[in-house]
Each structure stands twice: as structure tokens, then as C-alpha cells.
Amino acid sequence: MNLMILLRLVMTSCFGAAQTGTSTPSLSPFSQAPDSPALVQLQQFKPIYFLMGTPDTKVQFSFKGQLVRTVPFYFAYTQLMMWDLFKSGAPIRDVNFNPELFYRLYLENHLKSIGVQLIDLGLFEHESNGKGGTSAERSWNRTSITLKSGTNYFRWSFKIWYPYAFNPNSQNLPQYRGIWELNLSLLRFLGPFFETHELAFRLYPGGVTFNNPFLGGQEVTLTAQLALKPLMTSLVIQIFHGYGENLLNENDERFALRVGIGF
Q1: Can you tell me the distance from the alpha carbon of 37 to that of 24, in angstroms, rounded to the nearest whole number?
Q2: Is residue 24 part of a domain?
Q3: Which stretch of DSSP H or E encloses residue 80?
Q4: Cα(50)–Cα(56) distance, integer angstroms
Q5: Does the pLDDT value for residue 133 go beyond 80?
Q6: What is the pLDDT of residues 167-194, one digit of tens each?
Q7: Distances in Å between the alpha carbon of 17 and those of 31, 148, 188?
Q8: N or C: which end of the chain has fewer CB within 10 A?
């Protein structure tokens, strides 16, 4: 047995290489085989952006994934960070963690006549800021129903919820975050220079009776992406006024003007 045959036998026994003369592509321990898709395909859920301005920097990311292949049952997660980026030490002042489970109903054609295309049944939603055991802790749970519909030029959604399981520092959250929220969006109104663009308006009334828009929050967000192939991000301009923008400052009236990028 010559040396080349001996080396080939050693390589075959150690690495299982086939003696066909063809090479097998090498895979990283963290990569997937080409024909092996991810178990859960993640999609964007709420807007994702990085915004700087006054009074602070605001960062949000959000995704959802269908948990059962043949059943529209979803897990979603959103994280909001309020970042004092330009203060000494650049501390992240508040982080809001927001996991939820919901079941999505796609309405049949005869039901779409009422103007609703789908309904999200929010079975469980939790929101807290991870400051357990301190006076800065904020936490609550919600069960909700969200109605959604839209066209190529206009979208709307209406969400109403039942809040419960407040921690002791969060009893007044519904007075500032309300029990319902309305979202309206105008699309494709800026002309051909922009690949995508959206003007979104968000409103959640507050107050003792949950119907006072000035004791809740109002938010206007313009998102626009130029029709230039290399660009992967969008320009985002956002104005917020009111209460409850984040959990820690739920009872502070705030006016915010921020500009940044969206994904």
C-alpha cells in the first residue's frame, strides 16, 4: 500500500468523504443546510427604527413568528428603548419589554363588507420595564382585539384591550395609555422619487373615562425611502405629544421631535 492510498483511507475514516471525486460544500456549525429552512420564519411586526432628537433617543425593534405551520397562531416581541445618548455616560433610561401571543382571523369575502380584513385576538400581552423590586418598576398585562384593514393607499387598525395584573407602581397606567388605540396610515402620496413612503397617525386617549385624547398620546410618523437601489434604510421623522410614550414616564407630559432611520 503506497502513501497516497494510506492518506486517502485516513481522510475517509475521519471525515466520511465520498470517493466520487466531487467536493461537498463546507458548512459553519451555525449555518443551515441549503434545503433546511428555519423552523420559525420571523417577520417585522411593529415599526423598527433608530431616532435621535429631543428630549432623547428612541430605538425600537419588533418581530413576529407563526408558531404552528397550518394555524395562524403567532408569538410577537417588541422592545422599546429610551436612550439619553448625549448625557454623561449615555445611559439607557428605560427599556420596555413587550411579548405577546395572538391568533389571527382572516375574514371571508362576505365578511369583508363590514370594512375589516382581519382580526387579531390578543390572548396574552405583557409589558414591563425590567426594574422589578424598585420604585421605578412598571408592569401590566393585556388581553385585546385588533381590527385591521386597508388598501394600497390607506390602512387603519383599531385595538381595544382589557388591562390587568398591574404591579403596585402601575395602577394608573390605563389613565395615560388608555384602553384603546387607533392607527391611520396614508401610503404612496409623495410621488415616484420615493420607493416606499407612509404617513402614520397614532392616537390613544386617556383620562379617568379613557376618552380624553389630551391625557393620552398622539404620534405622527413620516417614513420615506428614496428610489435608490443601494439604500436599505428609510428616513423617519416622528413627532410625539402626550403621556405614556414609555412605561417609566407614563405620567409625564412630553413633546418629542426625532429624526432617524427605519428598517
Answers
A1: 19
A2: no
A3: strand 71-83
A4: 11
A5: yes
A6: 999 999 999 999 999 999 999 888 777 7
A7: 20, 54, 55
A8: N
